[in-house]
Backbone:
């Protein structure tokens, strides 16, 4: 609505979640794409309402109308439950501006460099002087540990807050700040910073996909000399220390570890009269088990049960070849060993599983529990309390289980 003449005009833009005042004649809009009423992507768009045109847009992980634009500092300010973050529009760097506890920030707005944050839980408004807070963060640099991360919820997560509390208790007067960048932009920015020798951060997060490249470039500080780290990793489940190490060098401590397991349809298992292996099992064991799992329970003359329903390509690459690669593919040193009878046998076995219709072939990832399948894929961290699980089959020669890892590195 034009306040000078009272005329209302509909703007030609769809998928709007929220908006904030931007520069003259412009607003910044948070919008989303959708397919079948399901949101598939979120974007900030700089919209010139006089010209009715989008002048700039970029993808974001922000999904709620809890943001505003700070014109003086060219920042998008947005709220988590207990934390206010800033994102520089030019370089997309994100930092913590204000953090507290036991709050639920529902709405924020900025007026004359003062940020007003409505706390739904406490029924109060927090007032933050943005310029003073930015200046204070800059002055803290000499007494600050800065964490560079692609995990936006890190600073507000239970383990993140607990870790900061313990650190600050052991290191009085030292603050912890977080800087966030989304997705692939984070990986590119991290590699550039490390190659340039930037010293504007202390701790960074690395996950599987860029770990080999950074190891080849010796980008990590060796943490092996810290007795407390050695002691803690030694006390953890076997294999975790190996995930955090390259040879004898400890390159990080775990931020997150994921491990595929299969959850079991216990009622179907009982109906089929089958018993799970008590320990680990091989792919040959799985084949024999899958043969026994094909039965005609409803007596209609057709086999109607399966070990699993899964896309063929996904099953072979995610479970069978990934298992083999963990044993015989060294991406760090550039070594591979596929000229082995064990590899040929594994490929032949994968073909038999689908040719003999022991696995119901579809295009889905096997995470949906079905009445007629015995196993569905789960992450070990998301298993419910009383859910029965079994490890993914392994090679006959090596008891190795693929794991995804995200590390805090220095």
Residues:
């Amino acid at each position: 609505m034009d306040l000078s003449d009272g005329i209302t005009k509909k703007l030609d833009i769809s998928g709007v979640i929220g908006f904030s005042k931007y520069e003259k004649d412009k607003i910044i809009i948070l919008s989303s794409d959708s397919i079948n009423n399901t949101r598939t992507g979120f974007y900030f768009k700089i919209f010139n309402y006089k010209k009715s045109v989008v002048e700039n847009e970029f993808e974001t992980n922000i999904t709620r109308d809890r943001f505003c634009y700070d014109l003086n500092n060219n920042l998008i300010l947005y709220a988590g439950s207990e934390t206010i973050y800033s994102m520089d529009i030019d370089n997309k760097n994100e930092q913590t501006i204000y953090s507290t506890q036991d709050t639920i920030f529902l709405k924020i707005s900025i007026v004359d460099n003062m940020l007003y944050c409505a706390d739904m839980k406490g029924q109060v408004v927090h007032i933050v002087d943005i310029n003073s807070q930015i200046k204070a963060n800059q002055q803290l640099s000499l007494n600050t540990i800065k964490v560079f991360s692609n995990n936006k919820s890190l600073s507000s997560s239970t383990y993140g807050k607990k870790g900061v509390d313990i650190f600050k208790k052991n290191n009085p007067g030292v603050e912890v700040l977080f800087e966030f960048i989304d997705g692939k932009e984070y990986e590119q920015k991290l590699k550039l910073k490390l190659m340039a020798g930037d010293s504007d951060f202390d701790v960074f997060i690395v996950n599987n996909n860029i770990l080999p490249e950074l190891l080849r470039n010796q980008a990590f500080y060796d943490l092996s000399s810290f007795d407390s780290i050695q002691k803690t990793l030694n006390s953890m489940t076997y294999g975790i220390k190996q995930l955090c190490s390259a040879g004898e060098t400890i390159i990080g401590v775990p931020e997150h570890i994921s491990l595929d397991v299969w959850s079991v349809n216990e009622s179907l298992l009982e109906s089929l009269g089958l018993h799970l292996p008590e320990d680990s099992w091989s792919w040959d064991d799985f084949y024999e088990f899958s043969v026994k799992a094909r039965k005609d329970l409803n007596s209609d003359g057709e086999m109607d049960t399966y070990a699993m329903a899964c896309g063929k390509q996904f099953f072979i690459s995610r479970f069978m070849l990934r298992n083999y690669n963990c044993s015989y593919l060294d991406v760090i040193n550039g070594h591979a060993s596929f000229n082995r009878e064990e590899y040929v046998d594994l490929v032949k076995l994968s073909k038999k599983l689908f040719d003999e219709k022991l696995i119901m072939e579809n295009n889905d990832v096997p995470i949906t529990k079905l009445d007629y399948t015995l196993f569905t894929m789960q992450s070990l961290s998301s298993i419910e309390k009383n859910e029965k699980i079994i490890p993914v089959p392994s090679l006959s020669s090596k008891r190795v289980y693929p794991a995804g890892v995200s590390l805090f590195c220095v």
